[in-house]
Amino acid sequence: MSNALTVENMLRVLPDILRNNTELYALAVGFAETVAKLAPQTDKARIYTRIDTLDEQLLDILAVDFKVDWWDPNAPLDKKRKVFKESWSVHKSLGTKAAVERALTALFEATTVTEWFEYGGDPFTFRVSLLGANPNPELHAAILRAVEITKNARSHLDRITYTTAHHYTATDCAATYAGDYVREFYSEEIPIPAHATAYTAHAGYDTIREAYTSND
Questions:
Q1: pTM for the full model?
Q2: What residues contact 170, with CB distance under 8 A and at least 6 apart?
Q3: Which of 62, 66, 88, 126 is the most buried (most CB within 10 A)?
Q4: In angstroms, rounded to a whole number, what is the distance separating the alpha carbons of residues 140 and 117?
Q5: Which of 18-32, 83-97, 197-211 comes out lowest in average pLDDT?
Q6: pLDDT-based confidence at 45, cuts 50/70/90?
Q7: Which long-range contacts (CB under 8 A, 24 or more apart) does 109-113 make?
């Protein structure tokens, strides 16, 4: 026997004293029919267990309510779901390397944060490597905002590297070999890496260098 909020189930538990009163029974039937119509809507009150089915407008509202300050309203819906799911873990670890990685991993296939002492950089700088997206000015701005919100105040970003999952032939470069397409972006002027054989400046980006690297 189902325990759902149906008219039949609600009337089944009606006391005899009400069932035998014509007026009160009619009132009970009306009440049961109203509740039965509203019952399916109670499912909308569930949030945490329905993130994968919530509509985009509600996700945007919840992102504000839950202070997901690195939220990108222009991100695809599937990415928004991942960002929202990960937001609780990010909030618990704000100001750490893990927070930056968690916030960005929701948007990319893989995220790696490398701290200054791991690559010989200036103290308290770090680099971010992202796999699985083709950067554009809007996406890049969203990434910089996410990094700024989730990192600690002491640390400073000095490079972001985007790597696509595709393979390109660098026909528009001086080099003639095939290589993975890599865009390296800088928050400040840094010499082009030694492994790069060519680069092109791009207006409209906060970042300006593009490099093609060999398979080596």
A1: 0.63
A2: 176, 177, 178, 179, 197, 198, 212
A3: 126
A4: 25
A5: 197-211
A6: confident
A7: 109/165
Distance, CA of 96 to CA of 207 (rounded, Å): 24
Distances from the Cα of 34 to the Cα of 10, 27, 39, 184, 216, angstroms? 11, 11, 9, 60, 70
Cα–Cα dist 107/104, whole Å: 5
CB 187 within 8 A of CB 157: yes
pLDDT exceeds cutoff 70 at 164 = no
Question: CA-CA distance, 59 to 77, in Å (whole number)?
Answer: 9
| pLDDT tens digits for range 143-158 | 888 999 999 999 999 8
Residue 200 token pair: 């092109």
Q: Where are the domains of the chain?
A: 7-44, 93-212
**1-43 pLDDT per residue, tens:** 577 888 888 898 889 888 899 999 999 999 999 999 888 888 7
d(CA 162, CA 184): 6
Q: Are the CB atoms for 165 and 109 separated by under 8 Å? A: yes
> Residue 201 is encoded by which pair of tokens?
């400046």
Helix axes 56-65, 77-92, angle to 10 degrees: 20
